[in-house]
Every structure is written in structure tokens, then in C-alpha cells.
Amino acid sequence: MSWVLLLIAGILEVFWAVMMKYSQGFTVLAPTILTMIGYIASAVVLSLAIKRLPLSTAYAIWTGIGIIGTSVLGIILFDERLTVAQYICILLIVFGIAGIRVMGHN
Fold first, then answer.
1. How distant, in Å, are the alpha carbons of 39, 92, 106 from that of 67?
2. How many Cα atoms occupy the beta-carbon half-sphere of 97 within 13 Å?
3. In the Cβ-directed half-sphere of 24, how many Cα atoms lie within 13 Å?
4. In 17-85, at which residue ranges do the beta strands (DSSP E only) sit?
5. pLDDT at position 99, please?
6. Sequence ranges of the domains in the chain
7. Can you give the pLDDT at residue 56?
8. What is the full DSSP assignment across 28-88?
9. How far apart are CA 18 and CA 25, in angstroms?
10. How many CB atoms lie within 10 A of CB 15?
11. For position 97, what pLDDT does the model report?
């Protein structure tokens, strides 16, 4: 269950980051409110996950999900471009998360 909570916390991190982009520097009300709600929800769910998971493992995976998710959605939603080096680094993050999960704690 802790891993499911960690995944949800990561998804919420991506959500609030995307909403922050839509808030245009906190000048658009609805995305600003959604950013705050998503941020708080992500932190709360992460705190529940780290009750049973090691902090270092959970935090690394949580931020990794955020990096990967925001990168993908930045490309899809905001027509952002990544360099080959950036794609390689994101791929390394994916492998790192998989390695932490496979070799880490259950």
C-alpha cells in the first residue's frame, strides 16, 4: 500500500507542477488554487507513504516521478523541446527509479 501511496503522491506532484504553469505566475485564480491543493495533497500522501518506506527511497522516487511526468507533460501540453542529452538524463532517472525499487525495500 505504501508504494501505491507513493505513486499517488508522485502523480499529485506532477499535477500541481502543471497547474503552476497554467497559473501564469499565480495570476490565474483557478490553476493557482489547484496548485495549492495539489501541493498540499502531494505532501500529505507522501507523508503517509514514508511511514513505512525509507525516506531516501521514497523521496528519490517521488521526485523522479515528478521529473519524468512534468517532462512528458511539458512536451505534450506546452510544446517544450528537450535536447538529446536531456532525454538521456531522464532515461537515467527512469533506470534509477527502477533500480531503487527492484533492489530496495518492499
1. 15, 11, 23
2. 20
3. 4
4. none
5. 85
6. 2-103
7. 87
8. SHHHHHHHHHHHHHHHHHHHHHTTTS-HHHHHHHHHHHHHHHHHHHHHHHH-----HHHHH
9. 12
10. 21
11. 85
